[in-house]
């Protein structure tokens, strides 16, 4: 019996996979600049040409952005997230909010059914961080914690596909929060609505969780329309 020789993937594909994992794992944070070429070449043991081919592949997928003379920056944590960011560039805040309503509603319903005690503890910690950041005037940290709270609900839904889809919109939703913040009258999305949602999840009240999401996001829609 003859054995077919194993086919090793091209080196550039291997390097692309390694860079993708560095982004996905958070080793390279969103909107941060990745290490310079010489450092990456030494770390990965590859040539400049191979590294650039890998970076180009991730830039094409929307995960990285190459800025000539400045460096390369992380723009999304996955190709799906990068595609979502590009797709939403030409849409309004109202459109984004309407998409969130559908995703958040289902995430809340399933989280009320499936969230563990550990999930609830984690969500409560995100709310505490969110409040502290707002009180300190750290709007970047506030937006981070707000996103972590909502993404945590999607994760607590117990549906990995829903969580992956929700997380893919993270860059868009996060940027939308930062865009809203400077507008006159923005109040940091009051804690009451988030706390009410968390309480509904903790007592496994699916209807109350869904109603709270609808109320919170509809209030945002009314504010945006003013």
Number of domains: 2
Low-confidence stretches: 1-8
Assembly annotation: single chain
Overall shape:
elongated
Radius of gyration: 20 Å
Q: How large is the count of helical segments?
A: 11
Trace the largest sheet across and list its strands.
Answer: 1-2
Largest sheet: 2 strands, antiparallel
End-to-end gap: 75 Å
CATH architecture term of the largest domain: Up-down Bundle
Order of helices and strands: HHHEEHHHHHHHH
Mean of the pLDDT scores? 84
Q: Per CATH, what is the topology of the largest domain?
A: Four Helix Bundle (Hemerythrin (Met), subunit A)
What structural category do the secondary elements indicate? mainly alpha
Task: Specify the helix fraction band.
Answer: 55-70%
Number of strands: 2
Instruction: State the CATH class of the largest domain.
Output: Mainly Alpha
CATH homologous superfamily assignment of the largest domain? GntR ligand-binding domain-like
Strand content: under 5%
Give a verbal description of the structure.
The chain is mainly alpha-helical and 226 residues long. Helix content is 69%, strand content 4%. The protein folds into 2 domains: 11-76, Arc Repressor Mutant, subunit A, CATH 1.10.10.10; 80-225, GntR ligand-binding domain-like (Four Helix Bundle (Hemerythrin (Met), subunit A)). It contains 11 helices and 2 strands, in the order αααββαααααααα. The chain has a two-stranded antiparallel sheet. Helix 5 (93-114) crosses helix 7 and helix 5 (93-114) packs parallel to helix 10 (191-202). The chain is elongated and about 55 Å long.
């Amino acid at each position: 019996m003859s054995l077919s020789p194993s086919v090793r993937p091209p080196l550039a594909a291997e390097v692309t996979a390694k860079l993708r994992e560095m982004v996905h794992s958070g080793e390279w944070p969103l909107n941060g600049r990745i290490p310079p070429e010489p450092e990456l070449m030494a770390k990965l043991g590859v040539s400049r040409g191979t590294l650039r081919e890998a970076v180009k592949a991730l830039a094409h997928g929307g995960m990285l952005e190459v800025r000539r003379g400045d460096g390369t920056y992380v723009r999304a944590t996955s190709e799906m997230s990068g595609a979502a960011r590009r797709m939403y560039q030409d849409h309004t805040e109202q459109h984004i909010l309407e998409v969130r309503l559908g995703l958040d509603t289902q995430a809340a319903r399933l989280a009320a059914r499936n969230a563990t005690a550990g999930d609830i503890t984690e969500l409560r910690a995100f709310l505490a961080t969110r409040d502290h950041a707002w009180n300190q005037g750290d709007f970047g940290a506030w937006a981070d914690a707000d996103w972590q709270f909502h993404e945590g609900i999607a994760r607590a839904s117990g549906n990995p596909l829903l969580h992956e889809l929700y997380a893919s919109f993270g860059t868009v939703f996060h940027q939308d929060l930062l865009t809203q913040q400077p507008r006159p009258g923005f109040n940091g999305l009051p804690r009451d609505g988030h706390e009410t949602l968390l309480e509904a999840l903790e007592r496994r009240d699916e209807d109350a969780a869904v109603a709270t999401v609808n109320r919170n996001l509809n209030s945002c829609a009314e504010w945006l329309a003013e």
